[in-house]
Design goal:
about 70 residues; alpha+beta; three-stranded antiparallel beta sheet; flat
Length: about 70
């Protein structure tokens, strides 16, 4: 199985395997997200996407359920 990550501006922001992570997030109104906020949001969708997120320093690592990393 393959995994995909899409980050696009204005409403389509943050899709992993077709599952919205930050649907409709407005960076202009709410500010820039921290790496921890992004990791936490990705991890709330793990059951739907098969992807987990972790931080190593300031690096965000996405891992697919089948063991392959997504960089």
């Amino acid at each position: 199985a393959s995994s995909s990550v899409t980050f696009a501006p204005d409403g389509a922001f943050g899709q992993i395997n077709g599952q919205s992570v930050f649907n409709g997030y407005d960076q202009n109104a709410n500010g820039v997200l921290s790496a921890q906020q992004i990791a936490d949001a990705i991890n709330t969708q793990t059951a739907n996407t098969g992807v987990t997120a972790s931080l190593s320093g300031s690096n965000l690592r996405l891992t697919a359920a089948d063991g392959r990393d997504i960089n």
